[in-house]
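Page 37, continued from 36.
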């Protein structure tokens, strides 16, 4: 277990003038002071950062080092700069070295904890408190649970207190809760994309482009990169940064409503919604992360119109295909770093693809030790998958049935089979399909059935929906989550990665009878849900119930369309009043007009057709 002690000098004005010899000399002296203190307390690694000093400990006295550094800073005067504060964050976890730097999700977590601190604070994580005893007379104050900018699951943050430090109150931490956004924690850690994140940041902040498109095959981590970059940049946008999930949308005609819903903007019900949205965004300085654009590329023109109507808005898009718009700056997203030689080199564990694979393996087998003779197999797996995060996670689940030496052979042979059967697929898609197909073989019949059924959902789904439509209880969903086939989201919701959903849907569509049965069950469930919530939409719990139904809006739309296409009058009747109320309350009147007029026309034609038949 490594302890990370990261420090930063908190004086923005000082760094604005750091080019002067006087300032440079002053900063150099402070960096040297910090290095001296950290080294004297047993630091095993030191590095100067742009605004402070980073250190790690494999023993020593990191908390005493933090207290000594903060005490020194609080007692010093910096001439004309007055009093300059220091902030410190400590976390314990695992790390690898890459190019004389420490890397890994725990390192990132420590850095984002430091970002959340105020000058004069020493912040600690629960992992740190488990690993290191408190110094004499020291105590901690629980500052509550926080979602940090690395988007790891929220955990408590503690403030270190000691008689040598003045007791004082601080503003709320600068975690994500301090900024307008709709980000939630991510079940996948952020690995090895620092260079791409810096490139995106440079483009968006330095005026090189207002539309950045992250393009590349599915499964390569575009969404995770976009979310991480947006979280890092949220403090640069006064009106915030927001994720606009497009994958659940069945048509580009719903993009305007989706953006408005995420931004909590209500239409007036009179003017055309698109123009209202443009007017709302006109003076806003915010970042829109439009995720999974590839299936509704007809809506790309809307992005260009937003940029013209709202000069301070910037857009970050993820897609498998470019939008092909004039203002677009495209970044091709490839795999994580992996060893490229015939075997594992001396730094094999520092490659981000290897780190992800090892982390995923240990989720399956916590006590797994990779033997020296297996390192080449690990490197080969990452090579075959070209550093693809989704493929790496799926392949790691095979460790319970195959030794590492056979996993690479299995992927290669499956890939060759896929290449013969589906030669039109790009090599990267062949690799992921090969991994999925073998992962599918390893599933029980119950797990296969749940995965096929879950492919019918648009967006996420609740535990109750999974239970009633797929017969999937918490235990089965947990099994699929452990296999990286289902992801657990906040508020007890679940989702499938869009590419895995595509493959699972293929399995569902192989059986037309099962497909029809599942779609009918999906329609019936959401029809009953709307009927059950109908009265509550008019009661005191109206706001809460409305929010619950809005979370299922993409599933509701899908159920409505299914019922209309098949002329299912009972589900349509069950849904009608609640859907009407939702659309009116959100003033999505143009959508309501189209939704109900199309349904009425379809039902009239169906009735006329029945009337003509013998």
């Amino acid at each position: 277990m490594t302890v990370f002690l990261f420090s930063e000098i908190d004086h923005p004005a000082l760094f604005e003038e750091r080019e002067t010899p006087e300032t440079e000399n002053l900063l150099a002296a402070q960096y040297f002071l910090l290095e001296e203190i950290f080294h004297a307390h047993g630091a095993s690694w030191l590095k100067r950062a742009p605004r402070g000093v980073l250190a790690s400990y494999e023993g020593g006295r990191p908390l005493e080092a933090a207290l000594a550094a903060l005490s020194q800073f609080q007692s010093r005067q910096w001439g004309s700069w007055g009093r300059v504060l220091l902030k410190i964050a400590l976390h314990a976890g695992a790390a690898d070295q890459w190019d004389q730097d420490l890397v890994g999700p725990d390192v990132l977590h420590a850095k984002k904890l430091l970002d959340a601190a105020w000058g004069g604070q020493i912040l600690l994580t629960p992992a740190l408190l488990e690993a290191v005893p408190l110094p004499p007379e020291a105590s901690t104050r629980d500052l509550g649970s926080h979602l940090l900018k690395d988007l790891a699951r929220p955990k408590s943050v503690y403030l270190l207190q000691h008689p040598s430090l003045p007791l004082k109150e601080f503003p709320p931490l600068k975690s994500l809760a301090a900024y307008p956004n709709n980000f939630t924690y991510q079940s996948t850690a952020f690995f090895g994309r620092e260079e791409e994140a810096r490139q995106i940041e440079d483009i968006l902040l330095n005026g090189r482009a207002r539309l950045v498109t992250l393009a590349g095959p599915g499964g390569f981590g575009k969404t995770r990169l976009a979310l991480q970059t947006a979280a890092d940049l949220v403090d640069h946008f006064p009106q915030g940064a927001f994720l606009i999930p497009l994958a659940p949308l069945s048509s580009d005609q719903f993009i305007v409503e989706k953006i408005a819903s995420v931004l909590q903007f209500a239409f007036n019900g009179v003017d055309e919604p698109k123009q209202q949205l443009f007017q709302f965004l006109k003076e806003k300085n915010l970042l829109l992360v439009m995720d999974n654009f590839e299936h509704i590329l007809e809506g790309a023109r809307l992005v260009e119109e937003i940029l013209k109507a709202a000069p301070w808005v910037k857009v970050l898009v993820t897609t498998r295909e470019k939008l092909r718009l004039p203002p677009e700056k495209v970044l091709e997203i490839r795999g994580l770093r992996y060893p490229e030689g015939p075997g594992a080199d001396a730094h094999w564990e520092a490659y981000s693809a290897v780190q992800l694979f090892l982390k995923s393996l240990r989720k399956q087998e916590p006590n797994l030790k990779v033997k020296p003779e297996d390192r080449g197999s690990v490197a080969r797996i990452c090579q075959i998958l070209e550093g693809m995060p989704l493929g790496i996670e799926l392949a790691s689940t095979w460790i319970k049935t195959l030794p590492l030496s056979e996993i690479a052979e299995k992927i290669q042979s499956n890939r060759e089979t896929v290449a013969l059967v589906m030669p039109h697929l790009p090599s990267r898609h062949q690799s992921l399909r090969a991994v999925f197909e073998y992962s599918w073989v390893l599933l029980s019949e119950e797990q296969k059935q749940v995965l096929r059924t879950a492919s019918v959902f648009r967006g996420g789904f609740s535990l109750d929906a999974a239970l009633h439509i797929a017969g999937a209880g918490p235990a089965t969903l947990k099994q699929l989550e452990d296999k990286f086939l289902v992801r657990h989201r906040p508020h007890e919701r679940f989702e499938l990665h869009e590419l895995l959903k595509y493959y699972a849907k293929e399995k569902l569509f192989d059986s037309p009878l099962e497909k029809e049965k599942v779609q009918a069950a999906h329609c019936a469930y959401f029809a009953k849900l709307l009927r059950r919530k109908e009265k509550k939409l008019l009661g005191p719990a109206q706001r809460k119930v409305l929010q619950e139904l809005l979370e299922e809006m993409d599933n509701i739309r899908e159920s409505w369309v299914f019922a209309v296409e098949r002329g299912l009058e009972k589900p349509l009747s069950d849904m009608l009043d609640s859907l009407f109320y939702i659309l009116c309350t959100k003033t999505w009147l143009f959508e309501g007009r189209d939704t109900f007029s199309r349904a009425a026309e379809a039902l009239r034609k169906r009735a006329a057709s029945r009337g003509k038949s013998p």
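Residues 589-612 form the longest helix (24 residues). Flag for discussion at group meeting. The chain has a mean pLDDT of 91.
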